[in-house]
Each structure stands twice: as structure tokens, then as C-alpha cells.
């Protein structure tokens, strides 16, 4: 029996679970069951290259479709999954699923398409992570250069993890720094990381229309990315004004609701078809 809390919404946890750690334990169990019951689903958000007007890649974003609570945001369960090390099997599942699906799309449409997968530091800490990623590529037949692993800057990153990133790079896999600019270590990471791309955090994008300091910061980050010969994609772009400013400033790779929201796998097919038809129309 679910119980109403003060806010008037139903509580997920039973009242007997008084302590936070018990709640965590319970939610961890729910998450484990969710995996087995197939309640986890990979959504995909297209990334657009504005110079060519085409989708160059998609980012895999995990969703938990809970039987009672509906969709639960990864922001709510990824931190817990990391704490309980559940992120290791979950992340591996996402990786396999995403690579498999992308390979299928490449074959169906005969187009180049990159897949970006978020990788937790916990996964990077796994002794055999390089072998695991390699195995998934072999299994699915996806080319390593079509896979990008997104790493969020994290204090837990040690030399061993940087070494692991180097090995993944050697396989030909692309590495990007996620949420770039919002963590204290951003700049030093550029020096230490074998990265290929930075993802400008939506925090900066949000201020484009209102804050000259955000615009100045973005211009500076774009210059820096160029001088490091890094690709750069802006996240969280929601308005045409934001997209225009970024384009004019030299950041042509855009990800955000303005173009596409994260969507279920089947919708990606439709969107790819439409964008292809669009291009054919324009070239006629
Ligand atoms: P992220 O990797 O930085 O992903 C971008 C987040 O911004 C996503 O939230 C996406 O839905 C959202 N977003 C994209 N465009 C817009 C926009 O225009 N406006 C706004 N307001 N938001 C936008 P989401 O899907 O809730 O994921 C949150 C975070 O959870 C991700 O941030 C990522 O760090 C983590 N995550 C998601 N899937 C996985 C996964 O499979 N493994 C791991 N380790 N982490 C994951
Ligand atoms: Mg990401
Ligand atoms: Mg991000
Ligand atoms: Mg993030």
C-alpha cells in the first residue's frame, strides 16, 4: 500500500524503510529487478552537424520505465547505481544495446552514424573494461571509430583510469569530456586526457541570450577546443537563437531539444528517414 507524503504524491518507499540506507538498499533491489524484467530502456538523442544539416550521431541515454512510477530520470538512479556498483552491469548492457542498434541502423540506411555512450568512472575502474568494450565491438561488428565514450569529469579519476582511457583510444574509440566547463578540473583534464571531443555543458548554453559572460566564456572555450584540435558539441540547445550564436561562434555540432529530444529506438529510424528525405529534397 503506497502512502501519501506531505507533498500529496505517492511515496515510492514503504514507511517501514526509515533510514536512508534502507531506502537505498530497496531501490537497489528494485533496480536489479528492473534490469531482469526489462524495465530499462535505451533512449537516443540525435546530434546535429549544422554545417551539413545532418545527424552525425546519437547519444544513448538510459531510461527506467517503472511499472508503477512511470519513467524515472537517470539523474535519480545513476548516482545510486554507481554507489552500489550496479552501474557496471547496467552500463555494459547499455553499451551492447547501443552498439548493436547503431550497427543495425548503419546497415539499414547505409549511412555513417556515431554512437555516444556515457561511461561511469566505476566502469573505467574495472580491470577488464578495455577487453569488455573490445568484445562488444567484436560481437556487434561496430567499427571502433563509430563509438564514442563520454566521460564526466570526476575527482575519482586517477592515473590508472587515464591509462585505461589511453588504451581505449588506441583501439580507435573516441573519447569525449561530458559537461565540460562545470567541474574544477576541466582545464587540467585537457592536458592529461587523450580526448577527441568536449561537450559544452548546458549551463553555459542557457545564458547565451541573457548573459554576456556566458557568451564570452563560450567563445573562449571554442577557441581553446580549436587550438587543441578537439571537436566540440554544445549540449542543451533549446532555442534557434542559441543555435545561431553557437554556429556563428564556430561550434557547429549541436545537441538539444531545439532539434531533438531523447527518443525511443524506433523513433530514431523515423527521424533518420526524414532527415535523409529532407536532404534529398534540398539537393534537388
Ligand atoms: P548527460 O550525459 O550530460 O546527458 C545530457 C542530459 O541532458 C540528458 O539528461 C538529456 O536528456 C538532457 N538534455 C538534452 N538536451 C536537452 C535540452 O535541450 N534541454 C534540457 N533541459 N536537457 C537536455 P538525462 O537523459 O536525464 O540524463 C542525465 C544524465 O544521466 C546524463 O547526463 C548522464 O550523465 C547520465 N546517464 C544517462 N544515461 C547513462 C548511462 O547509460 N550510463 C551512465 N553512466 N550515465 C548515464
Ligand atoms: Mg553524456
Ligand atoms: Mg552532459
Ligand atoms: Mg551530465
TrEMBL record:
Protein name from the UniProt record: Diguanylate cyclase (GGDEF)-like protein
Parent-protein start and end of this portion: 492 to 775 of 775
EAL domain location: 24-276
Amino acid at each position: 500500500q503506497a502512502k501519501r507524503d506531505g507533498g500529496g504524491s505517492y511515496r515510492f518507499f514503504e514507511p517501514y524503510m526509515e533510514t536512508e540506507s534502507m531506502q537505498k538498499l530497496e531501490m537497489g533491489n528494485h533496480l536489479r529487478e528492473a534490469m531482469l524484467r526489462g524495465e530499462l530502456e535505451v533512449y537516443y538523442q540525435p546530434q546535429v552537424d549544422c554545417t551539413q544539416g545532418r545527424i552525425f550521431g546519437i547519444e544513448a541515454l538510459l531510461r527506467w520505465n517503472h511499472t508503477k512510477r512511470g519513467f524515472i530520470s537517470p539523474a535519480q538512479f545513476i548516482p545510486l547505481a554507481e554507489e552500489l556498483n550496479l552501474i557496471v552491469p547496467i552500463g555494459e548492457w547499455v553499451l551492447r544495446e547501443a552498439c548493436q542498434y547503431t550497427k543495425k541502423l548503419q546497415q539499414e540506411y547505409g549511412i555513417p552514424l556515431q554512437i555516444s555512450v556515457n561511461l561511469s568512472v566505476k566502469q573505467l575502474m574495472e580491470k577488464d573494461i578495455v577487453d569488455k568494450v573490445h568484445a562488444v565491438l567484436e560481437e556487434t561488428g561496430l567499427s571502433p571509430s563509430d563509438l564514442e565514450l563520454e566521460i564526466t569529469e570526476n575527482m575519482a579519476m586517477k592515473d590508472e583510469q587515464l591509462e585505461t582511457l589511453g588504451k581505449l583510444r588506441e583501439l580507435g574509440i573516441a573519447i569525449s569530456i561530458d559537461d565540460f566547463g562545470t567541474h574544477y578540473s576541466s582545464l587540467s583534464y585537457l592536458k592529461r586526457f587523450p580526448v577527441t571531443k568536449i561537450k559544452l555543458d548546458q549551463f553555459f548554453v542557457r545564458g547565451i541570450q541573457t548573459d554576456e559572460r556566458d557568451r564570452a566564456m563560450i567563445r573562449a572555450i571554442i577557441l581553446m577546443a580549436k587550438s587543441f584540435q578537439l571537436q566540440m558539441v554544445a549540449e542543451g540547445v533549446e532555442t534557434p537563437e542559441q543555435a545561431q550564436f553557437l554556429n556563428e561562434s564556430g561550434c557547429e555540432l549541436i545537441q538539444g531539444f531545439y532539434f531533438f529530444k531523447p527518443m525511443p529506438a524506433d523513433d530514431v529510424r523515423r527521424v533518420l528517414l526524414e532527415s535523409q528525405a529532407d536532404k534529398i529534397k534540398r539537393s534537388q
